[in-house]
Structures are given as C-alpha cells and as structure tokens.
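Database export, one record per block. Field names are fixed; values are copied verbatim from the stored entry.
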Amino acid sequence: MENALALMLLFPLAGAVFQAGWGLSVGRRASGAAAALAVAGALAAALFALARCPVAPVHVSFGGWFAFDGFSAAFSLLYDRIAAVMTATVTGTALLIHLYSAGYMREDKSYSRYFCYLNLFVFFMLLIALADDLLLLFMGWEGVGFCSFALIGFWHEERKNVNAGVKAFITTRIGDLGYVAGLALVVASFGEASLSGLAAGAEVLSPGMAAAIGFCFLFAALGKSAQLPLSSWLPDAMAGPTPVSALIHAATMVTAGVYLLMRLDPLLAYAPSVGASAACIGAATALYGASCALGQRDVKRILAYSTISQVGYMFLAAGSADVTGALFHLQTHAFFKSLLFMCAGIMIQACGEEHDIFRMGAHLRRRYPGLFVLFTCGAAALAGIPFTSGYCSKGRTLADALTHPDPVFLAAFAMGALAALITAIYVFRMYFVAFFSEPADPARLHPDPALSRMQWPLWPLAGLAVLYGFVNPPEFLHLKDWLDHFLVGVAAPLPPHAAQAELFVESLDALLALAGLAIAWGLYRPARHPAPAPAGWLTAGLGLDGFYLKRLAAPYEKLAAFAWRGIDEDVLDGAAAGLASGVGGASLAVARFGGGRISASLLAIFAGAAVLLLWLAIGWN
C-alpha cells in the first residue's frame, strides 16, 4: 500500500518535471502522450490501492518535515475509503481530460508548459486527497491555487486572461486566511496538526473552540469551492483553455473545499452551528448559481455558474453530516460537468471560437451528431432527469436537508428544491438554443477531423453521467447501494428517516426536472426562434462583482493612491528631498570657507577656536 500511495503522487510529479525539462524537445505528440501516461500511472496506482483498501484507515509516513519547540510536521498520508474513492475519481477524470487536451491544444505553441501545469495540478490535488498532516495538505491546497492561476491566465498575451487568473488567486487567498487561522488553533489545542489527531481529540475540545476551528476551515472551503460570498472568481476563470475549465470545475480545485469538510466531519459533529452554516450557505449558493446561469449567453459561463450551484449541493450534504451523499454528488458532478465542458470546447472550436449559444443552432447538431448525443447525456444528468446520476445524487442531498431535525435545514431544502427547478430550465434553455434553434446570424462551422477525434475520451464520461447513479441508487428501488456499503465504518450511513423521505424527495426532484424541461420547451423550442434576453442583473451575477468593485476594491484603490502619493511621495519623499536639499545647502555654505582664500581660512580657524573655547568653558563650569 505504501508503494502504491507513493507512486500515485510521484507519477504526475515526474510528468510535470519531464514537461518542464524536455517537453519541447520531444515534440508535441510525445509531450501529450507522456503527460497522459503520467496520469494513467497514477490512476493504475489509485485503482490498485482502491481494490486493497481495508476498512481501517492506513497511516503512512515518509519522514519528518520540520520540528521546533515540541511541534513537528511530517510527510504523513491518511488513506481510507473516502480517500480511495476520491483519488480514483480525480485520476480517472483527469486522464480523460489529458487525452482530450492532446487534440484541443493541437495548434498551441506552449503545449509543454500547458501539460506541465496540468500534471502538477493533478499532483497537488492528490496531495490534498491523501494528506494527513494539515501542513502537508496546505501545500497541496496552495499548489492547486498556483496551478489554477497559471492555467486560467495561460494565454497571458491578453490582459483579461491575466486579470482573471489574478482574480482567482487573490479571492482564494482571502479564503486561505481562514485555513491558516484554523491551523493555528489546531496546533494551539493539540500540539500537532494531523487530521487523524483532530478527529481523535475533537471530543475534548470545548464547544466554542470546536466552532472556532470549524468556522475557520469553513471560510477556507468557501473560497476554494467558490461559494458565497467568495464565488465571483469562478465565472471569470473561463478565460483559460476549456480542458482547464473541465479540470478545475470537475473533480479538482472547486471540490477541494467540500473534501476538506468531509475530512473534518468528526469535528463538525461537535460544532453543529458550523454544519448548519455550511448547509445554508450551500443551499443559497445553489440558488444563486442557478439563477445567474439563466441570464448567460456564453456556454462556458452558463456551465461555470452551474458549477457554483452544484457545489452548493455538496456543501448542503456535508453540512447535513452526510459524507457519503457529499462524495456521491462530487463524483457524479465530476462526470457530467467535465463531459459538458469538453463538449462545449468542441462546440466553440467548431463554430470558430464562438461562445454565444444564440449563434449556434441546429446546423451544429446535424454536422456533429455524436457531439449532440454526448451533450444530451451530460445535460440530462445535470438537470436531474429521473435515474440519471445527477438525479440520484442530488435527490439524496435534498433528503438530507428535509429530514434534518434542525428547522433551519427546512429553509435550505426549500432553496435547494427551487434551485433544482431553475437548473432544469437553464440546462434545457442551453440545450434547445444551442442544438435546435435557427439563429438569424449563425456562426459559420469550421469542420476539422480533430474535433471528431476529441469526442472519443468523452464516451466513458457519458456512460458514467447516465448510469453511475446506480452505484448508490435511491432506497425505494431496492437495489444494492455500493457506495454506502463501501464507506461503512468510515462515513455515517444514511439515517432511517432520511431513507424513508427519499421516495418523496426523488419524486419531487423528478417532477421539478420535467417541469423545467416543459418550461424551457415552451420558451425556447425551435419554432419560437427565441431571442436572447437583454443583459441584466442575472447576467452580471446579481451585481456581486460590482458590489466588490464599488465597496471593497474602489476604497482600497483610493487608500492605496493616498498612501502612494499623499504619504510616500509627498511626505516621505518630500521630507527626504528637503533633508537632502538642506544638507546640500549647508555643504555649499561650509565649502565657501575652503575656497583657497587665506582670509577665509583664518576666519574659519578663529571661529572654530572660539566655539571650542566656549564649549570648554561651559564644560569646565
């Protein structure tokens, strides 16, 4: 097991080093193949470890990191069944994204730099999934932040791409302040910083300390997973290459916050206020993201707001103390969302880099029927069409909220149910407009054989998007729930009252999905030739970005300008310049006495002697 875990981390890290050193020299095809092989090696190690994963957690240490004053940090890993499922999901999805990237980046001159960042991204995400030491996990946490900055701004020739990367980096760093504060509280309370130690000692914490640690880490999770109020960076992250969007939005960066909450579940049991806050924030974010997606025309921004919304459901499940439900929706979302993003990449390239769904239409469906089928599978799962993967996992999160004894979860359930209806509407709006409409100004198609080849890695994701729900089907189907059984002893099972409510919730979820389909058909069916709605509050993300710019960024900019010009230039630089001018003037005055004239020299000598005698006289008295 120790060797498998080490190889799981070493394969993508070695791939990144290879790309940095020799990627350009070996050529484009060899570079892409090497990057994919590195992730394939990590997947093989992950599947090997998954097949042999015991019920009891496995602790592996590769030695100490540093130690001082009784505190020590180690390169220690915690491998349990949650980590086993997470690592298999991350590496499997990442491998398909790497294979797709070989075609997508076929003409880019910086392909080796791209694959270097992509391999490094996978390495840091696996470090998050496996780390036991919170400092080691923080290394992975910051690593995915750096890689996201580098990949979002990958095409740095355009300033807007760099700005999007900087925005993502700064916003997530604001959340990371919570991680640092929580880490400090853990070290102060336990003298160590390990997840296993925190889980074992959580019961000795006072309720106030448990809540303080929980809220600190919750704030960190909100930033990384783009939840309110730190969600505005994710739509702008679409500036990067489309495979990057698929990787960030599927099973890596945005799910890191959810995964952290899963790891902290033993602590949250002693801090119910943290769980309730996570659930309510998640439900509110689900509603916010779904509503904003309704006002978008750019296919990637629709999917970006959709990601914000779907990760909100994961927070709802994690806050309800249903680790299995959160992990289940994380997996299904990884499959259907990465599928949809990569389909969107093909659609954009086929239409000559056109992102507007209102300029696509039926000619795209007729020219690429395979792409249409793939997109249909992803859209059905995202909308929650009955018995698709998204239907099974989303229904479970809503059942968690409905049956929770705390009445605040009832409000979270209501927001989640309304978000489910809006989700179906925006998904089928996108579906009907992009594949069935006859636009007045259609984008010209650019047929390319590579676009058909890029569809090959998407078929496994399409199958998983449709069928993976049966890995953990609703209780009323009376089928084996594999995921629940696999996680027995690691995650708490679904409470009996929640299982009884699943039939009602899944029926409601099915009705909401079909109602959303009917509404979208009525508004956007091909015969109507729908026109895009004018830009408004939904298009602008309900003004969240504008609020930050006006209330936070603008005052900070004014303060910085005052500090620069009013203090630095006028006061500090002015004082330094005045002092220099005074010293210069005094030097010139003194220099007159050394001009070579005998009378001036004698005057200087007598004046100096007079001052010296005066000083001696004063000192003598």
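Remark 1: The beta strands are 58-68, 71-79.
Remark 2: The mean pLDDT is 90.
End of record.
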